[in-house]
Amino acid sequence: MVSAVTYPKRHSALAKSFWQHTGDGISSRRAELCHRAFNDGFLAPRVDDSDVNNQNSCAHHKSIKGPLRYQKARLIDGPEEPARPRADSLQDDKQQSKDDSILFVEERYGRNLDLSRAGQAKIAIRRRIAGALTADVDLNDMADIVCTDGSMRKVPGFSDEDVYLYPSGMSSIFNTHRIMMTARGNMKSICFGFPYIDTLKILEKWGPGCLFYGNGSAEDLDDLERRCEEGERYLALFCEFPGNPLLKCPDLARIRALANRFDFAVVVDETIGNFLNIHVMPDADVVVSSLTKVFSGDSNVMGGR
Prior knowledge:
- This protein has helices at 12-21, 28-39, 49-53, 90-108, 118-130, 169-184, 197-205, 218-229, 252-262, 292-295; strands at residues 151-152, 155-156, 189-192, 210-213, 236-240, 265-269, 286-288.
- The longest helix is centred in the first third of the chain and has 19 residues, at 90-108.
- The two termini are 23 Å apart.
- Helix 9 (252-262) links the parallel strand 5 and strand 6.
- The protein is an alpha/beta fold.
- The strands form two sheets. A five-stranded parallel β-sheet has the order 4-3-5-6-7, with helices on both faces. The protein has a two-stranded antiparallel sheet with strand order 1-2.
- The chain is globular and about 65 Å long.
């Protein structure tokens, strides 16, 4: 289903910032895809059941949505539309061949999961992130596999119920920031190290602002400690481990000690290393990640946690 948000023109700048930085809503690539599919007639109209019941001649209609190519049949009135003539130009033939190839791969290798299994898929993702599910099993069999060592990811008390999924990595960062402000109050955050730019923009634009340490050095931690000793208080410290693109790793042990001493949260973005290769949970209150990089190398799927 494709939805749209309307707003007064005077709020255009704010709306643009929200869509650009927060990770909520659809990506520009998906918007372009939907727009092209709409213009090419590949999106089926959604028919409400109430409308169908009021039209005796349309008794065979059902509520349908999404790309027509993923439906088993086209439920339309009247005779089937004639096939569109194939383009004569070589360029159009090449594009058609490319589109057919992509469609074949997507449908042949099961990259479009039936929506009835979406709930199971999300549980499987959460359990894999938590470390409770490591075997290559079917979704129907995963309930039989139980973690018996008493802890997951070597963190006592941690379970898959502590894993929350979001539509993108930036959405997980934005919502973490938003939830913390709701729970702890409007305080400045700390952006430690050179971050992915949208993280910095979120901390700057939503809430009272942030203290930015671009170098992420030991001297920066010295300055932060001095500020805290002088009475400054902060909501949370956001950092990447390792950083993107400089691959610099902050001193998490010292950051954790400062957080415990001066009561601020530690949020670690481990996208580049990901949860299979690095273990930052003992030093973090919240771990965020862009699952987009883990799910697929074709930039055709998005996710965050």
